[in-house]
């Protein structure tokens, strides 16, 4: 463990995974100045891709939020891989959450709260961020949620 953020993750019972390599022609993180742009992270757990299906059909709002939380864990794994120490995070600037949902689904914000709540739980006030939450017709590999992030670092 490097510092206080990783100690907080340990308190929460969270171990960051080794980040998964992209499955297409892009890089997982781009740094420009003090900003990290984290490519959309999907719910990949220890056994591979999880939460395949639509929120509002196969998954409830609560399950969608759990999926978004897993996306947040993968965002932090990519961040750590890029900067080496999560204590170098100055603030989480923005999250964009995309929900693979049924056409009539209107609880996008509650789903992406799974990611937002976790980020704030880990980083406190420097985890408070701007956010966009939208529904889409489909996501890569059929997953229920994908979240991208912009993070300011030292």
TrEMBL record:
**Where does the Endoribonuclease L-PSP/chorismate mutase-like domain lie?**
6-140
Q: Which Gene3D superfamilies match?
A: RutC-like
InterPro entries reported in the protein's UniProt record: Endoribo_LPSP/chorism_mut-like, RutC-like_sf
Q: Name one Pfam family in it.
A: YjgF_endoribonc
Query: What is the official name of this protein in its record?
Result: Putative endoribonuclease L-PSP
